[in-house]
Amino acid sequence: MALWARHVSRWGCLLSTARAVELPRRLRSRGCTARACREFAPLAALLAGKEVVPCRLQAYRQLSAGSCSSPDSAKDGSFSSPESNLPSVQQEQAKPETLPDLNAKILDRDWDDIPPSSALEVISEEEAVQIIAEPLPPVQSSTLRDYVDHSETLAKLVHLGVDLSQVEKRQKAGQLLLTLDFEKDVKKILLFLKDVGVEDNQLGPFLTKNPYILGEDLEALETRVAYLKSKKFGKSEIAQMVSRAPYLLLFSVERLDNRLGFFKNELGLSVKKTKDLVIRLPRLLTGKIEPVKENLQVCQIELGFQRNEIQQIVCKTPKILTASKKRLKQTFDYLHNIMGIPHHMLTRFPQVFNSKLLRIRERHMFLAFLGRAQYDPAQPSYISLDQLVSLPDEVFCTEIAKASMQDFENFLKTL
């Protein structure tokens, strides 16, 4: 556009120059005096317009000098003929005009002057049909699946193995993920978890259980890990605790310290045994403390265990602290009152409390039917509680009951 405007301006200047030459010639043909011709030169330039550049003004001066005779010739009454001046005019017009240097900088500057397209610019129907608009995310939805195609964060979390159908069941977890940027918010947490010791194949299940950690401050998470290291927990032990208790790093240093102090003082354990306890069952640091207190009271008051016996039971079977009180009392009642197992034997094999009561009852009744229900280590054909509950059915029948699997199945049908 700018180049075309220059061509128009140049042709306008040439046309103005020709008019400036033609007008004095007409005046001379009408008997113009030399003085009139000299006075006419600036007037011709004025009539040519403001667009005439200084180089054109000099051309006008040359044309005026060549067209009008000198004052001396005017006195003699002789004027130069128009034909004598024509070659001068034609020679002036024949000279090629010097064009401006259109180098790359000028062209670039001209193109930069072109204003950008406006968002309100009217386009044709053909152009409008060719526009492919991306689908908008739903304004409201009850499932995160509808947002996966619109969210880089959700798409990459799914690739890691996160189960969004489980995440959306957790309060405000879905809203949190939709507000996070993967590069700014999520990536640094993933790198932190890998540095702690969470394996790549564990990241998906971990974040499925605890998506809230993606919204935590990285510095706070590092402070909690540093606290565990200060308590002499090894890197592999911290990795095991974090993997088995995903909510562990959501709790402040104060809460973790108070919880460790509670188990140490309440159970009368040493520092090493307290560490071993929470390593085996890290949920003790993240779960509610009231059920733990209630189970300790049940063991001591209702089941009749001594304090030192409770310490042994808890160190061997930490799950007894979080077990159902009803199930705990029913299992103890059957073992102690029906099978006749004393407290010191239950303290020696506390894993029996983790077994299903139905399994204990079926096997004990089958042994009693065969006359082999002997649980006193001082008597022959002694059967330990560990063998009673831990062995598979086939091994239990052949090695403990000394019977076939078919015999055991037929007996169960009579119950």
TrEMBL record:
Species this chain originates from: Irena cyanogastra (Philippine fairy-bluebird)
Record InterPro entries: MTERF, MTERF_sf
Highest taxon of source: Eukaryota
Name assigned to this protein: Transcription termination factor 3, mitochondrial
Main localization, broad class: mitochondrion
Biased composition (Polar residues): 66-93
Gene assigned in the entry: Mterf3
Keywords: Mitochondrion, Transcription, Transcription regulation, Transit peptide
Region (Disordered): 66-99
Localization of this protein: Mitochondrion
A GO cellular component annotation in the UniProt record: mitochondrion
DNA repair recorded as keyword: no
